[in-house]
Every structure is written in structure tokens, then in C-alpha cells.
Design a protein that fits this description.
- One of its GO terms (molecular function) is acyltransferase activity, transferring groups other than amino-acyl groups.
- Pfam families: Acetyltransf_1 (PF00583).
- Keywords: Acyltransferase, Transferase.
- The protein is of the alpha+beta class.
- Helix content is 34%, strand content 24%.
- Helix 1 packs across helix 2.
């Protein structure tokens, strides 16, 4: 096992991100590698979002995507829009490294906290968040 390192995403990571997304949810297959590449370009050039990847032995094994947002009733927050760790690398500290990196970036940049959604079936993920001080909220979603 090589050392894990975290860095900002690069457009060249698109294939690895595509594969991570597919492993996380096979139903995402219609969203092509080219579309992932385009999204990385748009997000990194046109938004204030931050995406960190974790790599080991020059392989991207996880990523976390944070998006700053403003509210009329609270200080600025960062919404975690994507957080995936390769299945074979889970429970080895990768998620902790990634979420701590994003939390540190958020604190350094003046955000008051972070928020995220997690599917009700992801019990292990819920415990991961709760151990890190995240509080449970009920969320609703409507798809069009």
C-alpha cells in the first residue's frame, strides 16, 4: 500500500471519477466519461466549488465535492454534493482524509459549517457522519 495523498481535482481525472461514480451507483452509466470531463471543466472554471481527490499509487480512489451556498437565515455553508470512496479502499481512512480536507478548506474560507445528504439505506455512512459531529435532518426529494 502506498501513501494516500489528497489534491484538487484535475480534468485528467475524469475517467477515474466516472468509474468511481459507476461503482457507487451503476444506474449512473448513461452519464458518459465525456460528460464527466465537461462537468469537471465547468465546475473548476466557473464555480466556487472545491473537489478534492485522494490518490494512492497514482490511482484516484475517492473524491469529495463541496459547493458553497448562501442562505437568508444562516451564515455561509458548504454543501457536500458528491462523496465516493472506491469500495476496496473503504474503512481505511480515505473518507476521513477527504472530509477533513474539505472541512479544513471550508473553515479557512470562512464558512460556518457543512451539510450533506445521505440515502436512508446507507447506514454505515450515517455512522461515519455521526462520529464526526454531523446531526441528522430529514430531507425530501422530488424528481422530474
Amino acid at each position: 500500500m502506498g501513501q494516500k495523498r489528497v489534491r484538487e481535482i484535475r480534468v485528467a481525472d475524469y475517467q477515474a471519477i466516472y468509474l468511481l461514480n459507476l461503482e457507487f451507483n451503476p444506474n449512473l452509466h448513461p452519464f458518459t466519461e465525456d460528460q464527466v470531463r465537461e462537468k469537471i471543466e465547468i465546475i473548476t472554471k466557473k464555480t466556487k466549488d472545491m473537489i478534492f481527490v485522494c490518490e494512492q499509487n497514482n490511482e484516484v480512489i475517492g473524491y469529495i465535492h463541496g459547493s458553497p451556498y448562501e442562505l437568508l437565515f444562516s451564515d455561509s455553508l458548504v454543501n457536500v454534493l458528491g462523496f465516493v470512496v472506491k469500495e476496496k479502499d473503504r474503512n481505511q481512512g480515505v473518507g476521513t482524509i477527504l472530509i477533513e480536507q474539505l472541512e479544513q478548506w471550508a473553515k479557512t474560507n470562512g464558512f460556518s459549517g457543512m451539510k450533506l445528504l445521505s440515502h436512508p439505506s446507507r447506514i454505515h455512512a450515517h455512522r461515519f457522519y455521526e462520529r464526526r459531529g454531523y446531526l441528522y435532518q430529514k430531507n425530501f426529494i422530488k424528481k422530474f
